User: What shape does this take?
Amino acid sequence: MFKKDNETNPIGCIAFSNIVRGAFLSCHLGYKLDMDEVNKGYITEAIKKGIDIMFNNYGLHRIEANIMPKNKPSLRVVGKLGFYNEGLARKYLKINGVWEDHIHMVLLNDNL
Assistant: This one.
């Protein structure tokens, strides 16, 4: 991901991974952004475009984002995009040597 006025220095990225076809039609969403670029709308805009591609070009039914409860800015981003809380995944990922709980946020494609 780049700023519109500077396409040489990346400021972040988004990834749609673990894409499952067949009956599931789902994927996971991950993203990161340079600390200096937070709260400027870049990540929200990029994810919104990515959602459009995953739902409309690839025909997926579900996008899942798992976020640590303490990561309030990230929870706000997906909340603005319509994701809803499907529950807590206890000790979901090992981060820096510690098993961390994650909130399971989901967005469904209502056109399917």
Summary: Strands lie at 12-20, 26-33, 62-67, 84-95, 98-108. The helical segments are 42-57, 72-80. The chain has two helices and five strands. The chain has a mean pLDDT of 95.
